Amino acid sequence: MDNFLLQAIVNELEPLLANHRLGKTVQLNTTDVALDFRLRDGRWLVASTDPSRLALYLTTRQPKQLSDEPRTDTAFVALIKKYLSGARLTGMEKLGYDRVVSFHFEAENEDGKLSTRQLVVSLTGRGANILLVESNRVLARLRESGEAEENYKEPAPPAEKLDPFQCSAAQLYSLMAKSDGNLATAAHKHFIGFTELYARELAHRASQTDAEQALRQLLADLFEANPVPTLYSSPSLEELSREIGRDEFHLTLSPIELRHLATLPRTSFSTVNEAAEVCFSLLDARRRFLAQKQKLTSQLAAKLKKQRTLAANLERERAGFAKGEQHQRWGELLLANLHQVEKNDAGFAVSDFYDEALPTITIPAADKANAQEAAEHYFKLARKSKTGLATINSRLPEAQKEIADLETQLARLAEITRTDELKPLIENAGSAIPAKQPSKPQSGKKPKEEKISGVRRYRSSDGYEILVGRTDRDNDHLTMRVAKSYDLWFHAADYPGSHVVLRNPQRRDVPQRAILEAAQLAAKFSSARTNAKVAVNFCEKKFVTKPKGFNVGQVRLASFKTVMVEPAEAGERIY
After folding, report:
1. DSSP alpha helices (H): ranges in 1-51?
2. Are the C-beta atoms of residues 45 and 13 closer than 8 Å to each other?
3. What torsion do the CA atoms of 54, 58, 60, 66 make, to the nearest 10 degrees?
């Protein structure tokens, strides 16, 4: 959400919400909150601090429609309820130079006296957060961080950027000269609030007049004229709504008409909040669709890999049983030549009665002392081959059919762009392949190394074992069942990803190198794997809990530290 769009939304929200009292607060997930200001039309205020979809807008959707499992019992919600329950909103304002909105409330203290408190919604990229503030003291944070400050300070204006309202013609042309005459580059680099979108709009307008006049016109449209909320899309909104998962998916929301996007399909709205709700509803629907599609793809791909492995093993076993007829013949020849068989260094020399010429052939002794024992050995191999081939010939076609079916499903899934087409595939994805029961160790043999299903296993440079969960359910099992209290637990901060456990059975001080390697694995197996640097939270497992009602794979940390690392598959892969 850019600076200009946020300002237009705040301008609309202020008269709508002023003097209303805060009702329920619902936490939708780790980054999003819905606030009920008891509006007559029943709309909720949604604030998202997810860096990939920063948002602040009114919506007609209820919390249950916004999230699979909305919560009202989290620590953040509890503190909002404690300090702002029934509080009256006296006003709200946005910093002119940053994407920070302050909601000012008048609330009663425990002694009945009125007190002023703020709810600060900061939509500033990866550092986005929602803070509850009283007298510049932070009472609660939606997103906790390892280095959070207790006191709140408004972000300072960017020293390296200019207020476009204060930019003179001479300064403007000087900035253009420094950018090789490129007005879009100059505006994006040097003007407060100018994202690439509005920098391109400024350059487009300047192509029809001079740069100074274009800048004044654009600022007047943004801050002086009545908003003209417009949603640009490619393709049309109707097509995007129908095919939410199509590759071509472009949405641009603006409080004014953008001339450089005039060729795109566009939809106008009466209010900026109405346009924002349509925009973010589509983005939410697309995100859910792609997440479901990716999850189903992963499930089918895992089944396909397992079936291909099974088919390859069956083919290999069938090749090994191909000598069954030969073993049967050798056994018969050994018995037929018992009265005249000769043993040499190569085996047993016998006459081949299956050949009219009766040549002498040598049958391997197979470490047997005499022909009788060797014959029994080859008959046993022949029977085993016959039984094995019968089993393989019945199982292999089933595996091959399953492979073909899964390949067809994956090919079809890759082309699906509609929710109504995806839903039947999810419902009919097939029952999960039953997990193998652990086999009992055979007496007299050394037990095999513990095999933990659903994890990737690594060994750090210092010899510490590192376990990486594969799916959400595997993460739950790894964290809540496998990990011990003094093991170290890792997870990429603010991004979905695998739980990582660094085992510490001796309860020693873990070397920093092992910690960094485990953190690199947590970053690698997260949705932030393509970032240059990733923040990873870690703590001892005893500080990780899973309160009742939390989603699969979701946990709460009582205390943690954060380290910045490059995503990498560090350490030695065991399996």
Report:
1. 3-17
2. yes
3. 30
Q: What angle do CA 295, 301, 305 make, to 5 degrees?
A: 150
- CA–CA distance, 414 with 294 (Å, rounded to integer): 10
Residue with tokens 């590192």: 466
pTM over 0.70: no
Q: Which of 317, 230, 245 is nearest to 279 (CA)?
A: 230
Token reading at 426: 């999810």
For residue 128, the number of C-alpha atoms closer than 13 Å in the C-beta half-sphere is: 23
In b/e form, how buried is each residue of 241-265, taking b as 16+ CB within 10 angstroms?
Answer: eebbbeeebebbbbbbebebbeebb
**CA-to-CA distance for 571 and 462, rounded, in angstroms?**
9
Scored b (16 or more CB within 10 A) or e, 40-78 reads eeebbbbbbbbbeebbbbbbebebeebbeebbeebebbe
CA distance 518 to 536: 10
**Residue-wise pLDDT tens digits, 154-189:** 888 888 899 999 999 999 999 999 999 999 999 999
Name the residue among 572, 426, 573, 567 with its Cα closest to residue 495.
Answer: 567
User: Helix or strand or coil: residue 114?
Assistant: strand
Which stretches does DSSP call E strand in 420-483? 455-459, 465-469
| 442 pLDDT higher than 70 | no
Task: State which amino acid sits at residue 455.
Answer: V
SS3 state at 90: strand
Alpha-carbon distance of 86 to 409, in angstroms, equals 53
Euclidean distance between CA atoms 54 and 127, whole angstroms: 11
**Residue type at position 114:** L
Residue located via tokens 């909720």: 44
Give the pairing of strands 32-35 and 342-344.
unpaired
What's the pLDDT score for residue 449?
A: 54
Tell me whether the omega of the peptide bond preceding residue 364 falls within 30 degrees of 0, making it cis: no
Q: In sequence order, what are the beta bridge partners of 138?
A: 133
Q: Rounded to the nearest 5°, which phi and psi values hold at 107?
A: -130, 155
The candidate with the shortest Cα–Cα distance to 238, out of 193, 436, 246, is 246
* Distance (Å, whole) CA 253 – CA 271: 12
181: left (phi over 0), alpha (psi -120 to 50) or beta: left
pLDDT tens, 267-312?
999 999 999 999 999 999 999 999 999 999 999 999 999 999 999 9
Whole-angstrom Cα Rg for the chain = 34
- Residue where the block lists tokens 């990866």: 126
Residue 400 has pLDDT above 90, yes or no: yes
Q: Is residue 105 within 8 Å of 117, Cβ to Cβ?
A: yes
Position 418: which residue type? R
Amino acid letter for position 35: L
